[in-house]
Amino acid sequence: MQTRRVPLGSRGFFLIMPGTWAQIPLEDEQAMAKRISALVKQQMGSNDRLAARRRTFRDELTTAATAAAESGAISFSIALELLVGVPFSGAMVASEIEWPPTAVDQQDHPQRLSAAFPGATVLHTEAGPVARRATSGVQRYVEEQTPSLDLDYWIPNPTADSLILINVSLPMVSPDPEPFIELFDSIIDSFTWDPAAQPVAS
After folding, report:
1. Strands ordered across the beta sheet of 3-7
2. Which of 25, 60, 72, 167 gives 20 to 30 Å between its CA and that of 7?
């Protein structure tokens, strides 16, 4: 499986991601619109018969990216392929958030994460303890519906007393979510901070 090092914004945070992910800039509206237009053209071409679908795709991406920017997210990425020639739908948003008040009195990260996010699973990764919450649901498309999966990962920020929240939204998964949970657990396990690195947007 092909992988690449993907920056989470411009603060030196990285994940090793499988397949192809496209990043959409959040800091500048013009850059966001230009990237989305290029991405829509890349994925759907310029056939006139697909004009309505291109508009829908562009509007959906713009709405999602704008919401991420307004929420203070540091990065927004969408999945294009899991393997070469194998389409894969998903979105990943990374944000920096404060520790919840329930975790203030806890001293070590596993205890703080458990206190902050009751019911979440605390994973032990190469980057240290990480809390994960998986939520299964149903995505509806007109008259059809497919299983969906949302994953939230809370990673103690190595640069400050805060958290890096990574939300993964997978609108179409198999009835068994476990392979997808395992996949993204392994991706989160690759989280690193490299302050000397210069991220390059894809």
Report:
1. 3-7, 13-18, 192-193
2. 60
Res. 143: pLDDT tops 70: no
Q: Does residue 43 form part of some domain? A: yes
Rounded Cα–Cα distance for residues 175 and 189 (Å):
24
Residue 32 included in any domain: yes
Domain carrying residue 155: 98-189
**Does residue 87 have a pLDDT over 80?**
no
Q: Do residue 129 and residue 185 come from a single domain?
A: yes
Q: Please state whether 128 falls in left (phi above 0), alpha (psi between -120 and 50) or beta.
A: left
Under 8 Å between Cβ of 137 and 148? yes
Q: At what angle do helices 29-44 and 51-70 cross, to 10 degrees?
A: 140
In this structure, the answer to whether residues 136 and 175 fall within a common structural domain is yes
Q: What is the C-alpha to C-alpha distance for residues 25 and 83, in angstroms, rounded to an integer?
A: 24
Exposed / middle / buried, residue 131 (Cβ in 10 Å: 0-12, 13-18, 19+): buried
Give the confidence band of 92 by pLDDT, cuts at 50, 70, 90: very high
CA angle 56, 60, 66 (to 5 degrees): 140
Find the mean pLDDT for residues 155-160: 91
- How many domains are there within the chain? 2
For residue 18, what is the enclosing H or E element? strand 13-18
Q: What is the mean pLDDT of residues 116-131?
A: 93
